[in-house]
């Protein structure tokens, strides 16, 4: 392989035409090498997540390391960067593949021993996350059980015990995670970046300034509405728990991180999903818009059991159609949303244009696949979707219409503020991992979520969030995804037909499936994310639609 790289470097320097030929040869050889390894690694991870098996995690780590070593080849990286610098790549598909390859190789131009330590430590921390169960009164409890307590329990002591159990994994892995952060920073600085956070955004074709400009705008626009929402919410919670507003603590809210809006007595969506089969609902909905998910669900792992990863994700095993999701389904609104969400990711991957080169058969960006997942996930509370999928009588539809809109606005506003906590904490974590991170965490929670820390709490609660390990410097993409989901919602409502005199509904709208498939799914990463969004919706990404839908209603 090294001999080949040397040859193509010489060819690339001779003229633009032979440079394109050399790039074509490089890509063919590269894909032949990485495609089978990526499939093996994805299968190993799937087995590990489904079982918690140590051998599967070790196999995944070894395969992941093998892949990263391919991308650590300095001679190949120098060839690609020289080719990009010299220009002359006129084929847009070739040029796009070249940019993706440059980014992939840049990330791995670090010392092989350092790379090995990063991969192995990340796998170890993730395995602990997947298999760890917090304890209440000496008994292990699942994430699902903790969710139930937060949803239904009114005894403050029991809620606090569940909250503390949800954070126990943080104490178990905090030091290992900090070691991983330092290793990542070491790698980033060896590539000329100030820290791993800056490197990650650069490789994702973003910048800290770009993200923070959007977040600052949203913070300003959402501050007054969030204060009003918190006042209303806290009054209801104080009444529910028979305490003063000043006595509210983190465990009084809907979930351990206050990512979700507390249940509103005027609209409890779980009532409408009790007795339903969320799997069958999702299958019927996606089929009705022309996006068949039968094979996806047939290959998936959908229900909770010991040792299995307690969370949810979608994975594209081979970029050739084997797409699967992992869930821990229950027949409630949360898992209806999660299933719709994960199938959004899955259909994006499943319907890539298979005639595209292998390297381009992936979403345009991490946040564009999040946007599709969020676009679909929102339907679990959307009144027209609920009416049509759950066969609600007209009177029941009218009853929930306003309440569900209010619930969704609260949900989005709360999630936006939570995402700000995650983004700014992670930025500061990589900027200085030796600072008092517990204090930093609660300072940001107070600023953006307006929740005060428990007295004398000095535990690494921040480390209980799995995303710091498995998806570092990624969380801001969830909020960017919400912005794009709102922009896409606005586009389809304005461009696709609605019933005469009625509200637009996605249910049975095959034009929606066609629009998503042709404008977003099929192009995959043919275009950079910003170009794809403009092509798909007719305008660049902005916060206007999100603000109009959820903040300035």
Q: Could you characterize what this model shows?
A:
There is one protein chain. The protein is mainly alpha-helical and 553 residues long. Among the domains are: 2-109, no CATH class; 274-405 and 476-550, Neurolysin, domain 3. Helices cover 66% and strands 2% of the residues. The protein is built from 23 helices and 4 strands. It has helices at residues 2-14, 16-51, 54-70, 74-86, 92-107, 112-131, 143-152, 156-190, 196-203, 208-241, 270-273, 278-288, 294-298, 333-350, 366-377, 383-390, 394-431, 437-449, 467-470, 476-495, 510-521, 529-537, 544-550, and strands at 135-136, 139-140, 313-316, 323-326. The strands form 2 sheets. A two-stranded antiparallel sheet has the order 1-2. The chain has a two-stranded antiparallel ribbon with strand order 3-4. Strand 3 and strand 4 form a beta hairpin. Helix 7 packs across helix 8 (156-190). The longest helix has 38 residues, at 394-431. The chain is globular and about 75 Å long. The termini are far apart. Residues 10-17 have low confidence and may be disordered.
